[in-house]
Design a protein that fits this description.
With about 270 residues, this protein is α/β, with parallel strands linked by helices. The protein has two domains: about 5-105 and about 240-250, Leucine Dehydrogenase, chain A, domain 1 (Rossmann fold, 3-Layer(aba) Sandwich); about 115-235, NAD(P)-binding Rossmann-like Domain (Rossmann fold, 3-Layer(aba) Sandwich), CATH 3.40.50.720. The chain is built from eight helices and twelve strands. The structure holds NADPH dihydro-nicotinamide-adenine-dinucleotide phosphate.
Length: about 270
């Protein structure tokens, strides 16, 4: 087992994570021997866990909820995106034993849109939600030069915080108008607590593309709501796989083949 490359994902809870399965497929296709484990790490153990993992030969870690913000404290070097977001989902170690934090969610989202021919440039894009997932994709979407990039959220104070945080991007608060929305992105966890609804009906139509960052069963309520307008819908599975692929690339300098990853036979 010693020659296996030690990787893992940390979170609390962690049982639901599909990352071990996804990275095992990447490694198999790339001919790499990895040992990628899910680690249940509570907040109070976070920094100590990360330090010992790398001190004991760990090669790379993915970071999921609720540690995406606080894991940054354990890093010596932050990528530009992590500086901007204040959050990371990938940790690695360089040749000088320094821990590097990076964020691949935004790259994963853009890659999945590109693979699905979802256009962003010159389109009107509305993101619902102002939490970690919404924030992680805002800069990447803004760099694609949408005609308009808007955000809406249940708690209005968080919209204000986002506009301030991303003031260098042309992010706008959503306002009712007669302008149709081309791409609607659900970055909320609203469907977990009941049926999904959002007061934007008059701006949605058959051409609107609906993208839910949630995936599998968790996206059913969003798509049941969206089906009254359009059948153009994608869940977050592609983004999940693509963000993992960018993590893999940050560790091994090679972008894995993602075309044959099928998560339908894995439990969420
Ligand atoms: P956060 O907890 O950081 O944010 C949750 C967001 O959902 C907030 O904007 C919150 O609004 C909103 N919300 C929660 N409940 C409701 C409700 N009942 N009605 C309206 N809005 C609500 O979560 P994340 O941003 O980390 O995750 C959001 C989703 O994105 C999750 O489903 C997650 O699985 C998915 N995700 C997918 C990824 C992928 O690779 N596909 C990657 C990361 C996340 P408020 O501010 O008012 O509380």
């Amino acid at each position: 087992m010693d020659n296996e490359i030690k990787l893992g994902v940390i979170g609390d809870p962690i049982d639901h994570s599909m990352s071990p399965y996804i990275h095992a497929q990447f490694a198999k296709a790339a001919g790499l021997k990895i040992n990628y484990k899910p680690f249940h790490v509570v907040e109070s153990d976070l920094n100590e866990f990360i330090e010992s993992f790398f001190a004991e030969g760990g090669y790379g870690l993915n970071v999921t909820l609720p540690h995406k913000l606080n894991c940054v404290r354990s890093a010596d070097i932050l990528s530009g995106e992590v500086e901007l977001l204040g959050a990371a989902n990938t940790l690695s170690k360089n040749n000088n034993n320094k821990i590097i934090a990076s964020s691949t969610d935004g790259l994963g989202f853009i890659k999945d849109c590109s693979d699905k021919n979802i256009e962003i440039s010159n389109k009107r894009v509305l993101i619902l939600g102002a939490g970690g997932a919404s924030q992680s994709i805002i800069p990447s979407i803004a760099r694609m030069n949408p005609a308009k990039l808007m955000v809406d959220n249940r708690s209005p104070d968080k919209i204000e915080q986002l506009l301030e945080k991303f003031s260098s991007f042309r992010l706008e608060p959503f306002q009712q108008s007669d302008e149709p929305i081309d791409l609607l992105i659900n970055a909320t966890s609203a469907a977990l607590s009941g049926s999904f609804d959002w007061n934007i009906h008059s701006q949605l139509n058959k051409q609107t593309i609906f993208y839910d960052l949630s995936y599998g069963k968790a996206s059913e309520k969003f798509f049941s709501w969206a089906s009254q307008f359009s059948r153009n819908g994608f869940d977050g599975t592609g983004m999940l796989i693509a963000q993992a692929a960018f993590s893999f690339q940050s560790w091994f300098d090679t972008f894995p083949d993602i075309s044959n990853i099928n998560l339908n036979n894995v439990n969420d």
